[in-house]
Amino acid sequence: MKKWLKKVFVGLSLSLLALAPVQAEAISVEEIQDKGEVVLATSADFPPYEWVKMIDGKEQIIGSDIELAQAIADKLGVELKIVNTSFDSLITQVTTGKVDMVIAGMNHTEERAKQADFSDVYYLGVNQFIATKEVAEQVKAVEDLADMRLGVQQTSLQEQVLLGELPDATIKLIPDNGDLVQSLLTNRLDAVLFDSVVAEQFARQNADRLQVIEDVAIEYEEGAGMSVLVPKDSPEFIALINEVIAELAAEDQYNQWIEEYIQQID
């Protein structure tokens, strides 16, 4: 009986190990160049940074983050392949080696830094709420939102900002930005926190119902901002990405891309 139980326990342990996610190995520039492509994971529901748009009858993922990814691919001399997935699965995509990098408005946190390497910050803005026009008229300061039903994208930088600013508020975490907007339109939420550029676009797309709460803006803490993620312990790849970011910053190119893609939002 004891031998049988031991065999069952060992078998179960091996099965669990097989099911456990595998930590991706570090990736080098040479390895990416040898395979001829760099694989990007993003969550394309974040205009003007990344979203899906119908162009010439075909769905395409476009935006300023995609331009950044293409600039990295060009620096590597390889093709860019894009994987569109939910925001809350992006870390897993890179830690399990399914993709080479993540660009999706992702910010540095201590927990994420244990799992992946981060580039320098390539963009830093501010955060603003959108709400129905009726609710927006009631809000003159962030404290006015404390007793409202608030929403934010799960695992996003805005989640951290909102939990830090209004820790006792009723906050609903939703992975998809489109679902957050729909929750506002169907009166399941009172206000949603987005990056200010994204907030403006969602408000413009629903101008008959929604607006940005202009009197309330929450800035990021020092050191926060959008970065590129790659597999842990990939210093050569990070160095190349940081070089691209620096070159773009010198020409203010990323901000120009934002303005360009704002004009393409339907």
From TrEMBL:
Domain (Solute-binding protein family 3/N-terminal) ranges: 37-265
Gene3D superfamilies membership: Periplasmic binding protein-like II
Keyword entries, A-Z: Signal
Span of the signal peptide: 1-26
Protein name: Solute-binding protein family 3/N-terminal domain-containing protein
Source organism of the structure: Suicoccus acidiformans
